[in-house]
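Thread: quick sanity check before group meeting

JM: Hey all, I'm pulling together slides for Thursday and realized we never actually wrote out the predicted structure for the chain we discussed last week. Dropping the sequence here so it's in one place. If anyone has concerns about the input, flag it before I start.
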Amino acid sequence: MNIINKIKEKRLEKGWTQFELAEKSGVPQSTISQIERGNRKYPTHENIMKIVKAMEITVEELEEDSLQASKL
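JM (edit): ok, ran it. Output follows.
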């Protein structure tokens, strides 16, 4: 599982819609949708940082979760 998939997973764990994450992060909902669908394989560092800050997680958490999932 990659970081992009983890963003969606973490958002759903919080029970947030894409629109709610957009409001909290300042990243447009359309951009969040494109990231989650894989249409933006390389989202900007700025957008990732806004998203993780809004979700109160770290990039390291996303990476760690992704690495653990790949070992299974």
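AS: nice. The chain is about 70% helix and 0% strand. The longest helix spans residues 59-71.
JM: adding both to the slides.
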